[in-house]
Each structure stands twice: as C-alpha cells, then as structure tokens.
Amino acid sequence: MRNYRGVIIEESLKDKGVLRNVKVLKTEVEKVTKQSNTPYLKKWTLHTVAIKEDDADEIADRISKSLDPKHSWYADFKNERWHYIVYRGKIFKVDRRSKAQYEKATEYGISLGIPSYQVDFSPLVKTWERTGAKASEEERMLRIARRFYAKLPKFPDGRIDYTDSEVAPVMDVFVLHEGKILLLKRSNGVGYYKGMWSAVSGYIDELKPVGEMALKELREELGIERADIGEIKTGRDFRLRDRRIGKTWIICPVLVSLKGRLSIRLNWESAEYRWVRPGELKDFDTFPGLLQSLKALL
After folding, report:
1. Fewest CB atoms within 10 Å of the CB: 84, 125, 141, 250?
2. For the chain, where are the alpha helices, taking DSSP H only?
3. Chain mean pLDDT for the chain
4. Is the pLDDT confidence value at 122 over 70?
C-alpha cells in the first residue's frame, strides 16, 4: 500500500476536526512573513500528516470542505505516484509524471490569488526518506529559502544575495552512473574552495523546489538535461560551520541517476572531472561536508 504524506496548515482550516482523521507525524510553527501572504495571521502551524492510500479520496474531500472560505488556501499530500492538491471546492489528483496536470493545478491556485511561488509544484522530484523520516525535504528547503528571501537583498534577476549572510542554504548534487559518482575539481575562478573536489554545488537562491534548482545547476555546469536523468532523490539537510570563511552552510544532498554515460561539458566553475567509486572519495581533497552529504543519500 502506498500511503501518502503531506502538510496541512492549521490556520487554513475553518473546521479543524479534519485533523482527527489523519495521523499527525510532526508539528512546526512558523512566524508569518511578507512572503506568507497572510497578513491577518501571526503564525502558521504546519502539521506533517500521513494518510492511508484507501482513505485518500475521502480525506481530500473533507479537507476541501474544511478550508477557510474567506481566504485562498490549499493543502497537499502525495506518494510516489500521485499528488493530491486540494483547494476549497476543487481537488486535483495529479499523476506525478505529468507536467501538464501540475500546470493545471498551479494555474488554478494562481487564479485564486495565491502567489506563484507557493504553488510551484514540481513533477521532477521523488523525495527520498528513510523509514520514520519527517517532513518532505523538498518542502522543508523551500520553506528555508522563503525565510532568507524575506530578509536578504536580491540580485537584479531576483535571486537571493547571500554575500553578507553568515548562513546560506546550498545543494550538493551527486551525479551517479553505473555505481560511480562524478567528482569535479573546482577552478580558480570560484569564490570558495578553489582546487578542491566536489559534487555539483550551488546556492538555493530562488523560491523553487530543490529538484528544479538541481536541474538548473546540472544544465549550466555539465550540460546535462532533464531527458538524460532517470531519477532525482533528496536527502535530509544538515548544518556545517566553516570557521575559516565565517560561513554556516545548510547543505541539502541531492542524488541524480543518469540513464546512460554522457559526454560531460564543464563550464568555468570546474577545471576537470573524474568518475569514482563512493568509497574513493576519502582519497580526494574534498570540500567540507561532501562525505557527509553522500552518506545521507547512500
């Protein structure tokens, strides 16, 4: 049975009784910011919930009827195949492989006045979770990015500027093929860790799902396209303090499996690359946290 997991914001419910019909795995409280788009509230109470597969249709209907009719809200929950996106009076059961179905659910949310970055659903990411894991890493990292978006300056193109921030969320994107990991030697043109070996790395500086951000980095740094990829998995993030440069990294590990061996096209950020077995990483001068990132995925 493929049970579902998702998030319900308690303040979105007119009838909170529906919470008795689901299993609450975790509850977090977030302070409302400008990006929350709910100035009439001071906080969000986010319940991570589990829903039995056989109950999914009934629970979706109950949530839809329970949502606050005065404001535009949604709740969502998903398993490996299906993603329920529930608005008041409207339910989308989306095949997670279908970009077109996601677009319809997103367009409907925007038509209700919900900001586009809050309904930026992604069909590309299969969230990886160990048994007993907590909230979806995809959703968690998006919430972290929103916090930084609300308080940090932006570049002209809208990306978050972490230049003067002591804390920054980043991705370690590992490319896997036939049991080997792609290692990149950082060029002398990058800002940090020149000459060290790494995975594909980048700031989480846009309000987009981690998988979508990872695809962008792969395209820019290696010339890898979505069609070349079989699966994307995300692991649990962790914090790492590098006192040498005065930064604390919130590192989100990502594993991308290729369908076949490709011709890698490096951009200016990398000087060379090698395919290595995971156990060989310890023989390289890797940048901080890389071994811990890979361990979180394998």
Report:
1. 250
2. 56-66, 99-111, 137-151, 210-222, 290-295
3. 89
4. no
